[in-house]
């Protein structure tokens, strides 16, 4: 299956990727959910998705990337239609679970297809991220258009009915335009174990996810506390980096592919440190928005290069299993970071988490130079020989 042909369906199934996290708490509040019920919705989803990453990652290696990709489109379609009729906690939980499965299957299938190309991994991964963000920007416009004309509860239903219909079109489009021309898959795969080098990359990824999520989750509270920002100002601060990243993903990934992943990660971390150090002294919201955009770009660049460094050299037959193991570090950092940031924000003040981040990034640079492997030119993905058991 040609990776380049996936741009249109990826954009089509990504409409809610930006507005969902903002709209969900507002929607549940309108339904009369308590804060505890909302946190259950988030916590159960996070824990269940962590488990699904491991299970689906290993199972998916036995099937073609085309089958996994098409399955993800079907799951997106079902999830959006379930969201549209969800007015109770169990139904919302079901939609979240299906949505999580769809995202996992999408990531695994695309990682597998990208590694098949055997070069330019970060550039192609950046293109995938840009396509998702572009779909999200279109979704934001759709969200404003619908909610401007309908009250929230009816607007939510109509919005996700439209998203479900578009996802269904993406599913049909992919079935019609793709061919099942991939190699057969093995039923009995050799056990995949992370090498010492991959474990070091895993650890670095976990630390970076922890620190980045620690301040990322505090953006809205910080804007409200530091600048008394209204919803329009917050939206601009959110959308500016999203707009830039929607069209720069391939370019940012290419930086790591050409300059070297280790170098790209290190320079990006230094830029993040300098940017956040400046942010806390920003006198105006407009300056903050520009600095935050630079920070998001540097974060995007380091993430693409770190992912490419991890998956480089891993057999295509083990991409799903490797993705599941790698994501554990991301989820651990994503769980610990926001809790730590929220505690420090409430206890010591809104600028302290950002100061901690800047200091941590400065201290992390020598660790990166020690733990990350030295840059090498892209080399072909290792393949497994002597295949004896296959599955179509």
Explain this structure.
The protein is mostly helical and 392 residues long. The protein is 78% helix and 0% strand. It has 14 helices and no strands. The two termini are 14 Å apart.
What's the topology here?
Elements: H1 7-12, H2 19-31, H3 35-60, H4 65-85, H5 89-116, H6 121-149, H7 152-177, H8 196-216, H9 219-227, H10 231-259, H11 261-279, H12 285-311, H13 319-348, H14 352-371
Helix pairs in contact: 3-5, 3-13, 4-5, 4-7, 5-6, 6-7, 6-10, 6-12, 8-12, 8-13, 8-14, 10-11, 10-12, 11-12, 11-14
Distance between the termini: 14 Å
- Dominant shape: globular
Total helical elements: 14
The assembly state of the depicted protein chains is single chain
**Which runs of at least 5 residues are low in confidence (pLDDT < 50)?**
379-392
Task: Provide the gyration radius in Å.
Answer: 21 Å
How would a crystallographer describe the biggest sheet? none
Provide the residue-averaged pLDDT: 82
Task: Give the percentage of residues in beta strands.
Answer: under 5%
Structural class: mainly alpha
What is the β-strand count? 0
User: Percentage of helical residues?
Assistant: over 70%
């Amino acid at each position: 299956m040609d990776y380049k042909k996936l741009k249109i369906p990826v954009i089509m199934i990504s409409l809610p990727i930006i507005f969902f996290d903002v709209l969900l708490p507002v929607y549940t509040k309108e339904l009369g959910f308590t804060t505890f019920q909302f946190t259950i919705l988030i916590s159960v989803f996070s824990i269940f998705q962590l488990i699904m990453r491991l299970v689906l990652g290993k199972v998916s290696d036995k099937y073609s990337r085309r089958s996994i990709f098409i399955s993800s489109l079907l799951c997106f379609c079902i999830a959006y239609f379930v969201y549209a009729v969800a007015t109770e906690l169990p139904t919302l939980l079901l939609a979240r679970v299906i949505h999580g499965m769809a995202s996992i299957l999408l990531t695994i299938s695309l990682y597998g297809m990208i590694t098949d190309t055997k070069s330019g991994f970060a550039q192609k991964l950046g293109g995938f991220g840009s396509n998702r963000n572009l779909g999200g920007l279109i979704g934001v416009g759709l969200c404003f258009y619908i909610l401007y004309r309908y009250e929230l509860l009816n607007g939510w239903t109509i919005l996700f009915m439209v998203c479900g219909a578009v996802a269904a079109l993406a599913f049909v489009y992919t079935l019609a335009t793709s061919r099942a021309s991939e190699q057969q898959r093995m039923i009995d795969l050799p056990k995949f174990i992370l090498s010492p080098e991959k474990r070091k990359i895993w650890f670095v990824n976990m630390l970076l996810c922890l620190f980045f999520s620690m301040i990322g989750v505090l953006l809205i509270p910080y804007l409200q506390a530091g600048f008394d920002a209204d919803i329009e100002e917050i939206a601009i601060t959110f959308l500016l980096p999203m707009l830039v990243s929607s069209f720069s993903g391939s370019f940012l990934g290419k930086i790591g592919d050409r300059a070297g992943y280790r170098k790209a990660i290190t320079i990006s971390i230094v830029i993040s440190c300098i940017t956040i150090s400046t942010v806390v002294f920003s006198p105006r919201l407009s300056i903050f928005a520009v600095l935050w955009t630079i920070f998001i770009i540097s974060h995007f660049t380091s993430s693409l290069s770190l992912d490419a460094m991890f998956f480089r050299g891993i057999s295509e037959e083990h991409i799903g299993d490797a993705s599941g193991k790698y994501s554990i570090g991301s989820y651990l950092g994503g769980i610990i970071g926001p809790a730590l940031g929220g505690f420090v924000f409430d206890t010591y003040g809104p600028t302290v988490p950002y100061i901690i981040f800047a200091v941590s990034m400065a201290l992390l640079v020598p660790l990166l130079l020690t733990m990350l492997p030295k840059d090498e030119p892209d080399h072909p993905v290792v393949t497994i020989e002597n295949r004896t058991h296959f599955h179509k």
